[in-house]
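Submission sheet (multi-component)
Chains listed below:
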Amino acid sequence: MGKTRKPTGTVEEIEAAFYDALSHADLDSLMNLWADDEEIVCVHPGAPRLVGHAAIRAAWEAIFERGGIHIRPVQTHAVHNMLTVIHHVIEEVQRGPNEPTDVHILATNVYVKTPHGWRMALHHASIAPGAIPDEPFHTPVLH
Amino acid sequence: MGKTRKPTGTVEEIEAAFYDALSHADLDSLMNLWADDEEIVCVHPGAPRLVGHAAIRAAWEAIFERGGIHIRPVQTHAVHNMLTVIHHVIEEVQRGPNEPTDVHILATNVYVKTPHGWRMALHHASIAPGAIPDEPFHTPVLH
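Outcome: structure written.
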């Protein structure tokens, strides 16, 4: 598929490359970030789940026909071990003038360590009510 | 907190215990299934995200005031390594007579291996349109 360079780097760099590929509607770069596993899962807000490379690629291709999506992940919470990083982010989306401001997007991004480096195994995005909160639901970290 | 027995077993057993605790509105058993990490995340359908034990417990407690929830996870897709299991399931919910049948619930359940055994690190549930599909978005597994 993609002829772009295979991505390497930390999970933070892979995640930055993911949102960068979205902003440039760069399908090959985007798909290169995913693990080589047909059980990978992608859920777009309010849409059915997609399993495997072909289904995930086709959905992003359809989205990219309308151009890139400018998203900044904020308020990241992470659980990690040596082989997996679970990021939960709020997606700060650059909105058009007619788009709603009374909802925000929550996303779970899971990365697994593969022989080729860190790769995305799951992206699950969904809509939550209200504007982006100022972390009101966060219990203070005590350690 | 909970005085119930600490859960042990496979990820499949921990997941079964999770949905069993939901069905019995058993808050202590439910919370014992989570990793001892203040970065754990729980997202209920259409609700803001919850981070940490106290916030997650409080939300389930409020839900359980209306009784247990009878959910059967179906169509599980899994990505796993030695330290983490990512389950993506469709939640088949036992509905009341007035509840909608034109949506279904998608859930990401992530389990991490801890010194106490497998524990839940993330539960992200969201609503997708339509009745439960018959895996129409699944690319056939070739290996």
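Remark: The beta strands of chain B are 41-43, 49-51, 71-80, 84-93, 103-114, 117-129.
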